[in-house]
Amino acid sequence: MKKNIFYAQSGGVTPVINATAAGLIDGYKSKKTNFGKFYVGLNGIAGALNEELIDIKNEKVSELNKLKHTPGGAFGSCRIKLKDSHKNQEEFNRIAEVFKAHNIGYFFYNGGGDSQDTTLKLSSFFKKSNLDIKCIGLPKTIDNDLPITENCPGFGTVAKYIATSTYEASLDVKSMSNSSTKVFLLEVMGRHAGWIAAAAGVLKSSTNAFPHIILFPERVFNEKAFLKKVSDSVKKDAYCVVVTSEGIKYSNNEFVSAGTSRDSFGHAHLGGVAPKLSQMIQNKLKLKVHWAVSDYLQRASRHIGSSVDVKQAYEIGKKSINYAKNGITDVMVTIKKGKTKAYGWEIGYTNLKNVANKEKVMPNSFISKDGFGITNPCKKYILNLIKGEDYPPFKNGVPDYAQLELKTIKKKLKKFKV
Amino acid sequence: MKKNIFYAQSGGVTPVINATAAGLIDGYKSKKTNFGKFYVGLNGIAGALNEELIDIKNEKVSELNKLKHTPGGAFGSCRIKLKDSHKNQEEFNRIAEVFKAHNIGYFFYNGGGDSQDTTLKLSSFFKKSNLDIKCIGLPKTIDNDLPITENCPGFGTVAKYIATSTYEASLDVKSMSNSSTKVFLLEVMGRHAGWIAAAAGVLKSSTNAFPHIILFPERVFNEKAFLKKVSDSVKKDAYCVVVTSEGIKYSNNEFVSAGTSRDSFGHAHLGGVAPKLSQMIQNKLKLKVHWAVSDYLQRASRHIGSSVDVKQAYEIGKKSINYAKNGITDVMVTIKKGKTKAYGWEIGYTNLKNVANKEKVMPNSFISKDGFGITNPCKKYILNLIKGEDYPPFKNGVPDYAQLELKTIKKKLKKFKV
Predict the structure, then answer these.
(1) Which of A26, A84, A114, A143 is an active site residue?
(2) Which burial class, exposed, middle or buried, applies to A63 when counting CB atoms under 10 A from its CB (0-12, 13-18, 19+)?
(3) Residues of chain A neighbouring B399 (CB-CB closer than 8 A)
(4) What's this model's pTM, rounded to 2 decimal places?
(5) Among A30, A121, B55, B370, which is most buried by a count of CB atoms within 10 Å?
């Protein structure tokens, strides 16, 4: 009896994680003789723990075909980090039990650094338990912070969105600056790595002054230097555009977004770097500021997909079916630089040990000397990843995204109690 | 000697205000025998006060051709409201003097309610001063709050952006809700009218639960009812999506965004409704919240232009040249409902007196009974305005927007001192 596949989505989702699912499903369909059923865990690894499995043959093909252009995690994601198996025997046993009950021979886990760690732990446990389950990690993170892989699927589309949105908002504040707003601040994601903020830097050229300032978590935030740069930019260009990573910190390692102020009930004010910086500029420089926080809008921005990004995400899924068929296990699929001089890429893989729980921040050579911009090599790196427009189809004025049924199959085991 | 045109952009800009400029320029070019030169005021009416005029023949045709798809105000806008002429003789005299010096016979002012008021005041003053200058107001506002006109150019594109972005972020939070974020809040523009927030309402259907809550400035904000609705939505669907207008107020007429808290220097915390509501939900309901503030990103969102909106903005400019040629004055150009049963529209005009300084809020029939959603007639109204995708061309991964020189012509008068 052929072994079944178990796939799940994990961690913060991306605009193209479903493109990886689409590639995996298409790969499976083209190699169907090698595999049994294709199950997806509802809400990531929780689907394994709770024995909530979706058989993709129960989903409408027309909706599955939309996965390639649908943002979010179509099968539900999770923020569950498994503890080490010796501290957490119960959960590991349960997953093994569920996988045995459903004849799972292939485990594909689609996530970031934490999820690769989960995959590695499960793989070790399966081996110790004499279970033959191939374990393959599929990369995904808008933060672009996984090591080994040349870049991470999800980042290219978010980078394209941030560059485009910063361009547009810069034109807006520029046109208002003569008698109104002088500064525009955009807060983007990135707690430890400044890749997303860096994406706005591709706009700067001999004809564009913006963005005047990019703030990276890789650099200590210096209020004085920052305010001087804002003031200088407004003096020179009449306006100033700032793109800030959410995770910037002071030299004492405190987040700039961390509020010490309290409301009348004693509750701490919520973070948000953009309003904090805005307050700083208005108080100290007396300049009118507008600010935006892109949050999930950036992370789900599939309406302005990068063609390269969508292709890479899809191919990662498709290729990994081949790897599984060939018995490869304990790896994370990667994007490798092609051998040609122009930007080219191919799919490869690396041992899970090389990527689990590791984080790739921006190299020093990618951040400009003053710490407020990107260098040419960084610009080139990002421009390659935002090439081409992959638009979703629209229906009634809004994108036509997949709507899955997500009906789970009949359970074989008793309920799991955590 | 043929009279010259003076055009200027005013107030908060929109993603399609330059499409109106493009229509005007194209109209002028096709009727060139009737007019002299085509001047644009740099930074709105400030260009008239400071005698800073741009002759469009000095701009590259290739860049002018990009205006139709370029957001922001390409010629600079302004936030200047002229006082009544009897209180402000100096400014009115100066504008008349500049217009005489440059043989202006046509004044086109592209703005919202305040700008129509400026146009009306100037027109009256010109008449009193025996100056034959035709004055035509061109509508523009993402707020959709001008009366008489069926809708306002700029709104359709912003509505499309808000509906699309809310859709995408809803899929994101839905996929995270099982073990992480339960509520997503999006703050959109709209101080007095809830049109933009209403746009997200088109997503709700038999298959989509989101957005669960829309907050309108037209309805008093009731914290208790709001929190109950959030809690009920999370109980029912596992997650909740809220779209809020920036201008919502408590029953005591205080803005929800107005902070009473102070930082250590005694400075007031800046507004932002989304972080306020987020805090409320986290403190009272103990639910994990993500929030975004779209600010200029929405107002400049030309990368996802509504075809209807772009067409209307362009035709308003083009048609107004005909009106000017025919000697029509003291009007604002409008969009009228067509006579066919399907959605159709045509360009018309109304006397400036009917629109100056007036605001159209959402009618009661467009807001659902519980105050948290839109009705079917409202949905139909908005769906008509977000139809079709008008994408800008892209270059190197980002939109290829117009870059004008904005060189002003030689001055004929002395410097104006305000």
Answers:
(1) A143
(2) middle
(3) 164, 167-168
(4) 0.97
(5) A121
